[in-house]
């Protein structure tokens, strides 16, 4: 499976890009948010990818971070959420926004994505709610965007999906769980001080529980 692709951006369309890798053009579908953040045609680009295999078609989907790719994997595991709907949700909310909405049970936020109705939004939240905090707390999925390395295609995927599916178990006790929860909240855009205060004010046995509780505390009231 092609897990990462790097090369020169040839052109950008409304829902995909063409990346030239040593003379071979790879068509990669991306969310609107990802497309808007990509460089101009002719410049180097790198994306993590997910390969969708069908009987009559092969499609590559591209993501700037492993966090976004992991959310795509989880979203498409929900019945009724195909690759295009997943990209619509990610394009509307971003990976951090998806994590926040699902953790807080905010189906209305998920529903704001094009093509997502209320029943599907509720299903996404209900099926992924217990997995959301685990994804956000996993350090290996907190990395930033890839550094482009033109001309390179790496056929190596991320670790098996089960890593993100299970709640995060912290061996180092409450202090380490709090540190992981604080890091995840800061990565979601909360200030260091308010995040630290929220984590210190809630109870939880592991980072996942602390993140869920802290997000509820930090959520706008009313």
Automatic annotation (TrEMBL):
Where's the Holliday junction DNA helicase RuvA C-terminal domain? Answer: 177-219
UniProt similarity note = Belongs to the RuvA family.
For this entry, list what GO says about its biological process: DNA recombination; DNA repair
Q: What are the transmembrane regions? A: none
State the GO CC annotations.
Answer: cytoplasm; Holliday junction helicase complex; Holliday junction resolvase complex
- Note the HAMAP family from the entry: DNA_HJ_migration_RuvA (MF_00031)
Q: Which residues form the DNA helicase Holliday junction RuvA type domain?
A: 1-62
Q: Where is this region: Domain III?
A: 175-222
Q: Name one GO molecular function term.
A: four-way junction DNA binding
Q: Does the keyword Transmembrane apply?
A: no
Q: Where in the cell is it found?
A: Cytoplasm
Tell me, what does this protein do in biology? The RuvA-RuvB-RuvC complex processes Holliday junction (HJ) DNA during genetic recombination and DNA repair, while the RuvA-RuvB complex plays an important role in the rescue of blocked DNA replication forks via replication fork reversal (RFR). RuvA specifically binds to HJ cruciform DNA, conferring on it an open structure. The RuvB hexamer acts as an ATP-dependent pump, pulling dsDNA into and through the RuvAB complex. HJ branch migration allows RuvC to scan DNA until it finds its consensus sequence, where it cleaves and resolves the cruciform DNA.
Which parts of the sequence are annotated with region: Domain I?
1-64
Q: How does it assemble?
A: Homotetramer. Forms an RuvA(8)-RuvB(12)-Holliday junction (HJ) complex. HJ DNA is sandwiched between 2 RuvA tetramers; dsDNA enters through RuvA and exits via RuvB. An RuvB hexamer assembles on each DNA strand where it exits the tetramer. Each RuvB hexamer is contacted by two RuvA subunits (via domain III) on 2 adjacent RuvB subunits; this complex drives branch migration. In the full resolvosome a probable DNA-RuvA(4)-RuvB(12)-RuvC(2) complex forms which resolves the HJ.
| Entry annotated with the keyword ATP-binding | yes
User: Domain comment text?
Assistant: Has three domains with a flexible linker between the domains II and III and assumes an 'L' shape. Domain III is highly mobile and contacts RuvB.
**Gene that encodes the chain:** ruvA
The principal localisation class reads: cytoplasm
Under which name does UniProt file this protein?
A: Holliday junction branch migration complex subunit RuvA
Question: What keywords appear on the UniProt entry?
Answer: ATP-binding, Cytoplasm, DNA damage, DNA recombination, DNA repair, DNA-binding, Helicase, Hydrolase, Nucleotide-binding
Phylogenetic lineage:
Bacteria, Pseudomonadati, Pseudomonadota, Alphaproteobacteria, Rhodobacterales
């Amino acid at each position: 499976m092609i897990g990462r692709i790097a090369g020169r951006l040839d052109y950008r369309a409304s829902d995909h890009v063409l990346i030239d890798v040593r003379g071979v053009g790879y068509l990669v579908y991306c969310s609107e948010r990802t497309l808007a953040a990509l460089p101009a045609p002719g410049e180097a680009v790198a994306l993590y990818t997910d390969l969708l295999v069908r009987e009559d078609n092969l499609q590559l989907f591209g993501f700037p971070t492993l966090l976004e790719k992991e959310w795509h994997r989880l979203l498409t595991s929900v019945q009724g959420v195909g690759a295009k709907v997943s990209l619509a949700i990610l394009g509307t909310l971003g990976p951090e926004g998806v994590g926040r909405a699902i953790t807080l049970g905010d189906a209305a936020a998920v529903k704001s994505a094009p093509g997502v109705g209320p029943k599907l939004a509720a299903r996404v939240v209900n099926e992924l709610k217990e997995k959301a905090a685990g994804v956000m707390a996993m350090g290996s999925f907190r990395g930033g965007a890839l550094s482009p390395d033109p001309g390179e295609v790496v056929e190596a995927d991320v670790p098996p999906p089960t890593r993100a599916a299970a709640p995060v178990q912290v061996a180092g006790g409450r202090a380490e769980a709090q540190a992981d929860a604080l890091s995840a909240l800061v990565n979601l855009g909360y200030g260091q001080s308010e995040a630290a205060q929220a984590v210190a004010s809630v109870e939880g046995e592991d980072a996942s529980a602390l993140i869920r509780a802290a997000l509820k505390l930090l959520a706008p009231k009313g």
